[in-house]
Amino acid sequence: MKKKHSIGAVLVLEVIVLVLVFCFDLLMISGVSGLEKSFAYFIDVPSLLLIVLVVAPALFVSGMGRDFLNAFSVGKREYSLRQLKRCLEAVQMVQKMIICGTAMSGIISVVMILWMLFEKPELDETWLGPCLAVSILVVFYAVILEFFLIPVKANVQNTITDLMDVEDEEA
């Protein structure tokens, strides 16, 4: 069996890379003087809450909450092939729910912005930029979550493949 890297170490490395890329992009756009103010533009609690409210109920109603959490400890603990497949299904379901929730939120936001443009022409256009930014933030959060779920999914898939190879060798 191949030597595996700890999924925790991989996720920590991803956090470091994402933070560095994020800071570098903000530095290039806003400069050093606007860096700390720029961070605040990327915080939108309702968008984060929406993703959680879409994913969490579906995860636990389907009975896959424990399997999703177990996916983060694959490689540290031993799991049966059946348990690993359930972990994989749970991660895939969360990925799909994130995409669906993000699409729903983005569509609702854009429809409301377009409605405001049509219904309230007396408004000046200064509100348009912040509204579009907020509607795009939920997509940004979904991408960040996917950055973390992709290696978890790959880890579970590789573990399943390795376990199947071991079972074939034993047969």
Would you give an account of this structure?
This protein is mostly helical. The chain has one domain (44-170). 80% of the residues lie in helices and 0% in strands. It has 6 helices and no strands. Helix 1 (7-30) runs antiparallel to helix 6 (128-170), helix 4 crosses helix 5 (81-119) and helix 5 packs antiparallel against helix 6 (128-170). It starts with 6 loop residues before the first helix and ends with a helix. The mean pLDDT is 86.
Radius of gyration: 21 Å
Main beta sheet? none
Low-confidence stretches: none
Q: Count up the helices.
A: 6
Strand content: under 5%
The overall pLDDT, averaged over residues, is 86
* Whole-number tally of structural domains: 1
Give the overall shape. Answer: elongated
What structural class is derived from the secondary structure elements?
A: mainly alpha
N-C termini distance? 16 Å
Q: Give the number of DSSP strands.
A: 0
User: Percent of residues in helical segments?
Assistant: over 70%
The ordered string of helix (H) and strand (E) elements is: HHHHHH
Features:
single chain; 171 residues; mainly alpha; 6 helices; 0% strand; elongated
Summarize the structure.
The protein is 80% helix and 0% strand. With 171 residues, the chain is mainly α.
Reconstruct the topology from this structure.
Blueprint: H1 7-30, H2 35-40, H3 45-61, H4 65-71, H5 81-119, H6 128-170
Helix pairs in contact: 1-6, 3-5, 3-6, 4-5, 5-6
